[in-house]
Design goal:
245 residues; alpha+beta; Arc Repressor Mutant, subunit A; Endonuclease, Chain A; 9 helices
């Protein structure tokens, strides 16, 4: 491993390493000489030198009213690393002491959301496969009329059959229609509950785990989408139960 890599691992940035290496070659020098060596102006140099002093890599002294900067000797670098090691050990101990407070403040539901988009009949099947594999209760808004006579009919029926077979726990708010009453009366089981509602919607929505799946069965533009988000799924579950009452 080269010297620059070691200094980077210690915590120095590129400019700090550049100035420190120049000082090693120059020895104790005023800022004007360091500026010539590094091709950096004094305005840029002073903050870098101040940072190196704070980190323990450089010291300064006055001679004939001129400020000089000196690098630590190569041997002293080992002591610098030892001091940093001791500092990190102290910080680790302090961090462990404040962990209870950090845990109390931590919000596990603040997470990045992800969205998956699936086109066509195969896309709809992929979405329903993901829903059927849910380990948690599935909440759904169902609209049988939107797919019962279309090309997705067998795929949706197969999905319902798998949920019955796997004993997935499911609650469904179903758009009331003559077709819906017949279909869900035939598949109702202990693990599947449904309520007919005088509501109108044209796509189906499934809320499960930390996901929300939406499927549109419109011929020619059939698609499914899965949003994975703790915050959104919690909100949608709360809204669902308001409609379930």
């Amino acid at each position: 491993m080269i010297v620059e890599d070691i200094l980077t691992n210690i915590g120095l940035n590129i400019k700090q390493i550049y100035v420190f290496m120049a000082l090693l070659e120059l020895g104790s020098q005023p800022v004007s000489i360091v500026a010539k060596k590094t091709n950096l102006n004094r305005t840029t140099l002073y903050p870098i030198l101040a940072e190196l002093i704070k980190l323990g890599f450089v010291s300064k002294f006055n001679k004939l009213n001129i400020q000089y900067f000196s690098p630590v000797s190569p041997e002293d670098l080992v002591d610098v690393i030892k001091r940093k090691k001791e500092e990190f050990s102290r910080l680790e101990s302090e961090m462990r002491n404040v962990l209870p407070d950090l845990r109390a403040r931590f919000n596990p539901y603040m997470s990045k959301s992800s969205v998956g988009f699936f086109e066509g009949i195969q896309g709809v099947k992929n979405v329903l496969d993901d829903v059927a594999n849910s380990k948690d209760e599935i909440l759904a808004y169902r609209c049988v009329d939107s797919w019962i006579t279309g090309q997705a009919s067998e795929i949706v029926k197969d999905f319902d059959a798998r949920c019955i077979l796997k004993k997935n726990k499911m609650k469904m708010i179903v758009m009331d229609s003559a077709i819906s009453r017949v279909y869900f009366s035939d598949i109702a089981r202990k693990n599947i509950e449904f309520k007919l509602k005088k509501m109108k919607f044209e796509n189906e929505i499934y809320i499960y785990e930390n996901k929300i799946a939406s499927i549109s069965f419109i011929s020619g533009s059939m698609f499914g989408a899965i949003i994975e988000s703790n915050e959104n799924s919690k909100t949608q579950k709360a809204v669902f139960y308001l409609g379930w009452k």
